[in-house]
Amino acid sequence: MLQTIAIVLIVLWLLGMVSAYTMGGFIHILLVIAVIVVLLRVIQGGRL
Length: 48
Prior knowledge:
The chain has helices at about 1-20, 25-45. It is mostly helical. It has one domain (about 1-45).
């Protein structure tokens, strides 16, 4: 489930990069959250 959330957040971030500056700050916050979730999965021994 965490992997799915991370993938969705990364996709949203990429869409934000394409769609100019509409929600730039929010999208980058989502990217940071996605990276943290992936790191937690790795630390806990889950597979990516």
